Amino acid sequence: MTPPSRYSPIPPVERLPEWIRSPIGNASALEAVQGVVKQQRLHTICEEGRCPNRGECYAAGTATFLLGGPICTRSCAFCQVDKGQAPVPVDAAEAERVAEAVAVLGLRYVVLTAVARDDLADHGAGLFTATMAAIRRRSPAVAIEVLTPDFWGGHRDPAAGERAQRQRLAAVLASRPVCFNHNLETVERLQGEVRRGATYRRSLALLAAARELAPQTPTKSGLMLGLGESHDEVLATLADLRAVGCERLTLGQYLRPSLSHLPVARYWSPEEFDELGARAREMGFAQVRSGPLVRSSYHAGDEG
Questions:
Q1: pLDDT tens-digit series, residues 151-182
Q2: Under CATH, which architecture does the 27-221 domain have?
Q3: Whole-angstrom Cα distance, residue 256 to residue 232?
Q4: Strand partners of residue 223
């Protein structure tokens, strides 16, 4: 009799639809950015998240830097970034190294994002303000978009938490980014499973507060499709975003980073992405990027 196996069988690899194909992009631009990022000991969400469009974006003079180190204090079930409750200490020289990389690469449009740093008193807001200031000292003409966490945490009193969140947000907006981005990631029903530590209503409130504090700064958000949401739930989410004044939108297909992440419930077709993009424009979104390989910073610096 054959002894039972000590290991569970690994399920077969999912066959991706034919339209899920990562573009090769510009190999020389990819190598150049990767070299500078490695030399400056930096992190980009382009690389950490294995973005399929990074070669294309690099060639267009755009990159997304990941601030606060490579370890996130939250454990979202979709995200490739490493997780842990003991992240590395804040690197005081990180902002200057990002500014150096931007200058060396001659970037025209920079997106700054960050791991969630719930261990810090300001929850990472200072990472954004310091880096924006450093970039502008070296490259004043560079446009800077921010893609932030929710700046929430550690408050038993919701009112106190909201005040602290608003103060952190105000500090970031005072540094005058050209766009404020905060992703909902998925529809309300799936938030607890997908975005651990964040909530749908709190994120909507953050976007609403950004419009109130800096009405001249466009706000932006994004959704991943394929986690089990319905078409009607997506449209309801878009309506919620418009209700808080969100002007820019990204819609892309969720791709499972590993077997330890949430599985893909289904792959939305290019035609469905086109239809949702058209509906979003009808709702009043001024800038819409909708397609299977679209990510938060895709063509971020383009108008319209």
A1: 986 567 888 888 899 999 999 999 999 999 99
A2: Alpha-Beta Barrel (3.20)
A3: 23
A4: 185, 251
